Request: fold
Amino acid sequence: MDLVTPGFGLIFWTSVVFIILLVLLKKMAWTPILNNVDARNKSIEEALEAAKNARDEMSNLKADNDRILKEARAERDEMLKEARELKANIISEAKNAAKDEADKMIASAKVVIENEKAGAISELKNTVGSLSVDIAEKVLRAELKDVDKQNAFIADMLKDIKLN
Reply:
């Protein structure tokens, strides 16, 4: 049974070595390990706090972004409305100006046509008058070749003049 029961010296030196090992481990390993674990816990808590702050900030930014988008859409709609009104005004003014210009051109064309018509009528009258005189001259020459006919014609003319 000696093998199973340890001696007092063995227990003493095992205990002394164990205590020395515990002291060395406490100074050399456990304190730095515990410090590292505490630092790690602290950094995790700080990271969690930073994540929470970032989440809050992101929700605020999202709200601001939504507000800015609504304002931009409203401004865009207003600009489009103004552009449509401006387009309608420009088109209306252009139509009115074109109509006025067309009316002026029509009036000018009517005046030109009337002048040309009057000129053509005057020229036609002059031509008809000239032709009539030429025809009358040729007819009179043909009929008045004879001296007796000339004297009879002059007598008829004198009678007409006295009557008037």
